[in-house]
## 1
Amino acid sequence: MNLPPSLPSLPSLPFMPFALPEIGEEEIAEVVDALRSGWVTTGPKTRRFEEDFQAFLGADGLHAIAVNSATAGLHLALEALGIGPGDEVITTTHTFTATAEVVRYLGADVKLIDIDPATLNIDPAAVEAAITPRTKAIMPVHYAGLAADMPAILAIARRHGLKVVEDAAHALPTTVDGRLVGTLDSDATVFSFYANKTITTGEGGMLVTRDATLAQRAKTMRLHGMNRDAFDRFTAKVPSWYYEVVAPGFKYNLTDIAAALGIHQLRRARDFQAKRVLLAAAYDEALAGLPLILPPRAPAGEMHAWHLYVVRLAGDVDIDRDRFIQRLFDAGIGCSVHYIPLHLHPYWRDRYALQPEAFPHSQHAYERMVSLPLYTRMGIDDVQRVSAAVRAALGAE
């Protein structure tokens, strides 16, 4: 595979990290402009980032609310939907704890379910089987950048009168039936801009919804339950110091310094995705024939964000996952595991008396999975370096 001019390799590094952000001069200049402007907290750049994000998604009637993390966005979405004590929210065990912990913030309970063993996404059949009279919402996670089966999940939600909040932390840009995640018929979608995501603001996220009432509630709760944004109060042409606290809100606003990064990262999002597609294809080619289960690809015509490249050891290998990771680490390759399923963590395990046997697909995948480096500062040579280390770790050369 030839190396495109836009996909340079990293300088030779003694240790290749699992992830690195790609920050350009435009981002740096925009951050400097924010610092010089005097607006370092939520202000004009945050508003511009929200408007740009709505335009990027390209669908009518969307509201985009910038927040300081995807966790904050998920919390705001569920709060605005009225989730509270006595309610249940269904989500996958195969996710980061943030997806579930926001349910507990509100005093509701989490119902964890298993995944589809092929896609590693939430299993719609398991969703429907888990519904009880207490169920109020479903939270699918688009694992690794591959869309969950949203047509099936939305159909289940309609049949049972449930809300849907998509955890799209991995899914910018990802499509379902040719539509970008964020423009589907769910009640809200939340994206992450953490340092290792497909675009970054360092820390940050975006809540997207078509529901004007939900959007207004999220905006109010984003900043202490105040009924006026600080930006509006401090830029008005007439005295506008007065505001009212209408609810016990949170401190979830995104700063202009972070939004300055996001403005230019968003402009590069499609180029970043194209680079990730090339890197994933290079991995597929280099790792073909090894005793590995390679990541599932998106259906024909759909877009995979390729936030992660997750391989699984095949059943006939004579090395376990932990030893495999150690060999890669010894060869100078940083890896990770996405994820330690929630049913194995003490809090979730003990609160809900969870056993691995209830989640056979997630448990089996976890015991054999490794996330290899995949980020846009890599080149094909870097993929080949990682792949050579994988082959050596498996004893294939």
## 2
Amino acid sequence: MRPALSRKEPSKPDPTKFQKILLVRLRRIGDIVMTTPAVTALKKALPRASLTYVVEEPFRRLVEGNPCLADVLVLKTGGSSSRTVGRPDDFHESDSSPASRPALRFIELVRHIRAARYDALIDFHGGPRASWLTLFSGAGHKVGYMIKNKGFLYDIVVPRGPAEGHIHSVVNHVNLVKALGVEVPEIPRLFLPGPKKEEAGDVDRFIRENGLQGSKIVVLHIGAGNRFREWGTENHAALAGLLQKTQEAKVVLVGGRENEAAARVIIRKAQAHSLVGRNSLIELRELIARAALFVGADSGPMHIAATTQTPIVALFGPNIPAIVAPWKAKVRIVEKALGCRPCKQRECVHTDFRCLRSISPEEVFKACAEFL
């Protein structure tokens, strides 16, 4: 009798033989920053391997210039793509070309990846487009998370978290590296590349023009990834007033263009300075690095702050620190112990977002005073 057919188990990888490894993490700021310890650990363990990172256009500067990476492939918003490191002429077309249409440009990116013949691929994301890239990459060993209906994409799958309890996202990403057979004795800090000359110059000019030299600068992030993480304009204004009155701090507001109206309200009430909608991600890091304190809700800029030595006061609402606290940073967490946390941020069971908005400006100010 014939033996029953069984699925062939993938061969166990020997990471010392890997010459080219593709890393995929599409969106967003904090998620990308939290992959950097895994990138650093991978390069340290396999110094001869060439690492390439695929990222979306708005976030390219978070990895562009990372000394661990030999190449960066950029997927523009809408699906078009370009190469930013190495020899750009090898993989670049003007946006006016017929191939600039999203679907065709995405196919071209896939073709470029297949032609590169990567020995291994690590999918830090698991989203739809990352899954398509993984499926058609042609990589020798594909590693990703154990996601429903997507396990077949990978040769090696890793659980996103333990059966009980929680695991930090940084540790999760490092576990993907370990799944390739790479040893990671100690998980490094988060990393972002330093500013270019013009980026540092922009921060210098802002500090000089606003008379902030030698001041106790507090960077206050007034944005949020969604309405569940929005602390409120009135709370930000009250905190800014307390900081300037009691601690003689100079408050600098940061956030996206969507926060410009809120910034104008805060400035009228607290006379803060504003860089809202005006700075790049690396310029933001440079400003935070020169500040006495960073304050903000759980968000991408909070993780950018964690790449510096500047202390952080972090407000946590729907998420919990066990999963996404600032990694290896000097931080004071402000949160409320509610049974509905963490939540999936689709619907507030209380309808009032109390997990974050019940935190008072006075509570946050008290945490700030510990550092100032």
## 3
Amino acid sequence: MLRLPCFTYLAPKSLRQALQWKKDAGPEGMYVAGGTDLYPNMKRRHQEPKTVISLAGVRALGRPAGRRAGGPAGEGLVLGTGVTLTQIVEHRKIRKHYPVVARAAELISTPLLRNMGTLGGNLCLDTRCTYYNQSHEWRKAIDFCMKKDGAICWVAPSSPRCWAVQSSDLAPVMVALNAAFLLVGPDGEHVVPAGAFYQNDGIAYLAKQPDEVLAEVRLPALDGWDATYHKLRRRGSFDFPVLGVAAWVRWDGGAVADARIVLGGVASYPQAVPEAAAAVRGSRLEADAIEAAAAAAFRPSKPMDNTDFPLAWRKEMTRVYVRRALEELAGRRER
């Protein structure tokens, strides 16, 4: 049985208090929200904080999902990052105006873990790898890996960087929507686009300082766009994605005025594919435009030996899932 190491648990009631306690704890302190990622990692000794600072009691982070951003729903919504995934799935405004967000949240893990896991926790999910997400003794037997305690990335032994993969379901959706994230730290707050929040490095995968808190997610205004998310995983009941496809299009009449296609589960960050988006701009999402976009997404998709299924098959599924996502958007437009 894997057991948690000893640590000090702190439960601040305000964001200011949480930031101060993290400053006091220094590098040996870590924030925790729902704990569905951090606590299993602590059991495997991936992270070993001496102080764990819970954000569960911070009211500023747990505001109801769908709080209005200064006006009607058409001007965008602000989500507190402490809301649970279940709250997102069940929230009326999100299901009505941002169904892609509810759908992605609904595909995460199991109902029990969605009751615990939070929006912020999933967006900040640790990158995953076959050689990393193992017990301490298993990793010790291979002399560990670059991501924790070792010097070699076993996915690509000659590589100077870690290739652990980003496995959040909500991250590619937020990048496709061009959502904005509010970060709050001891030196103040600032807003970053979702696409700039993630970095293509399995170790330094977030453009966020360790003492900063992801406080809000700001969803864009509703101005003629539609989006969907498709997920490939071994077990349909629950599992991390080995491929996620978020497709976003903005319609102008019957034509696509703009588009974004973002892949999850194939790199250390949600990978936008501008060539695929360019293939459908100006089209009506006819079959040939969809095939061109699927082919364009296939080329830069380079899954590595860091998760489930054979590499060649996973790469081919990029073409299939991009096609399915765009066909869904086309079909909804026709109805």
